[in-house]
Amino acid sequence: MDFDLKTVSVRDLNQALHDMDETTTGEVTVLNPDGCHALACGIDAPINVNIKGHAGYYCSGMNKQARVTIYGNVGVGVAENMMSGTVRVKGNASQSAGATAHGGILVIEGDAAARCGVSLKGADIVVKGSIGHMSAFMAQAGRIVVCGDAGADLGDSLYEARIYVKGKVASLGSDCVAKEMCNEHLAELKGLLEVAGADADPAAFTRYGSARELYNFKIDKSSAY
Amino acid sequence: MCGIVGLYLKNPDLESSLGALFAPMLVAMSDRGPDSAGFAIYGNEVDRGRIKVTCMHEDAAHDWDGIARELQVSFESNVSVSRNANAAVLRLAAEADEVRGFFAENHPDVSVMSVGRSIEILKETGLPEAIAERFKLPDMTGSHIIGHTRMATESAVTTEGSHPFSTGLDLCLVHNGSLSNHNRLRENLKREGIQFETDNDSEVAAGYLEWRLREGDSLEDALEHALEHLDGFFTFAIGTRRGFAVLRDPIACKPAVLAETDDYVAMASEYRALAGLPRIQNARLWEPEPGKVYTWGRNAG
């Protein structure tokens, strides 16, 4: 099924996708996306969606089950609040990629800008390039894998999300610390890299997580809050 | 919100279609700024010693020829006039400050939008599409252009409060964001002799750059200093007679996309505005990094 956005509105595209359910399978191709916002949002069907070009804000937001591939760059908030399924960006992502996502996996083959995985709630994010500043801010659960570098203040006020970075980290945010890579971490990282199709050695990554010092209010640490 | 767009041509063959390439970029950002719109176009430069003064008056039938005759007598210079809707571009040999003084004294009802050898600023309240149409933007020619679609936050919806802002010769700025320290900075800059027409925060940023350039900074240095002294959220696109620059604050909440080919450099708040440019599929496309100065320019002449 093809939707050419030169002739079909985004609203009509999304309505057609919302009309699909558990029983719907197959391929949907979106042509001439030209940076439109809210493409392929709120899908709840096991379909493949191929967006042939650059997408705008909130692409594939709230995705369930679907496997969405964007053959280009995406704007702010790709796969925000995703529940399950796969979103793969062939190019770069703007800020807040995968924000508050609960489940599924977001793969970004290029770079992601600032605030990648902000308030992540259980999804996995694999970025083959680098990520911007304030990424994983207040991330609660899930895993973020970065094959390149991370910008300033990584993992500030982190809860229980796990972060793996292969390259340099400009600086760590409050309460984010480097942690030991145990066998279980090497195994889960290997699995994530395989799913994402990223060719990298798990042993070359450093794991970062919460020092759990900000969980409860401590008067001695008030300056860090 | 607000939308900002810029197009800087590297290939002179495209200069005859600058307005036609740019108008759809401005219109594409209507959702981000439906209150007012404007643009600063650079081109059709006048000779050294002469200046272009772009003026507007609320009456589309204003007597610009009469004003030209007065200028001719006052400045002992031949004056040419081109009208465009309720705006006019007057070309003459004079100093910018003296011409601004002439209008303030003799024609306070005329708004001076820009002064320089190359720049022309046209802006108005209303939807971007209506403004592009009114000033016949698609027919305009030049080397580079920056534009703005405004959703007002810091000051009133008026022509004067619309962008681009220009305080110095051939210098202009468009801004998406809001500055927190503009009142204090405006007072400091006034003491340095920079003049302001409005209470708008973005005009302060334009005035700040004018001051730095006057103090001898290069455009790059002026923007590095801006990172230190401007407090708030901003994505700026800046035009000078021969240059074009983009800067985002270090927090980088306000969006920006850059595209570069052998023919042009284009900047926009969102990719949507760039989607119709020639061979955009082959452009190098990236999000400008926070706190990093990007400039392009021709050799000064």
* Shape call of chain B: globular
Q: Which ranges of chain A are low-confidence, i.e. pLDDT below 50, for 5 or more consecutive residues?
A: none
State which percent range the strand residues of chain A make up. Answer: 15-25%
State the largest interface: A-B, 18 and 15 residues
Enumerate how many helices of chain A there are, as a single number. 2
Quaternary structure: heterodimer
What is the beta-strand fraction of chain B? Answer: 25-35%
Report the count of strand segments of chain A.
11
Query: Class of the largest domain in chain B, according to the CATH hierarchy?
Result: Alpha Beta
Strand order of the largest sheet of chain A: 1-2-3-4-5-6-7-8-9-11-10
Please characterize this protein's 3D structure:
The complex is a heterodimer of chains A (225) and B (301). Chain A is an alpha/beta fold and 225 residues long. Chain A folds into two domains: 1-94; 114-211, no CATH class. Chain A is 10% helix and 23% strand. In chain A, strands 1-2-3-4-5-6-7-8-9-11-10 form an eleven-stranded mixed β-sheet, with helices on one face. In chain A, strand 1, helix 1 and strand 2 form a beta-alpha-beta unit. Chain A is elongated. The N and C termini of chain A lie far apart (51 Å). The relative contact order of chain A is 0.09. Chain B is globular and about 50 Å long. In chain B, the strands form three sheets. Chain B has a seven-stranded antiparallel β-sheet with strand order 7-2-8-1-13-12-14, with helices on one face. Chain B is 25% helix and 30% strand. With 301 residues, chain B is α+β, with helices and mostly antiparallel strands. Chain B has helices at 18-28, 64-75, 96-106, 128-134, 182-191, 201-214, 219-229, and strands spanning 3-9, 36-42, 51-56, 80-84, 87-92, 111-116, 119-125, 144-150, 172-179, 232-239, 243-248, 257-260, 264-268, 284-286, 294-297. At the A-B interface, loops of A face loops of B.
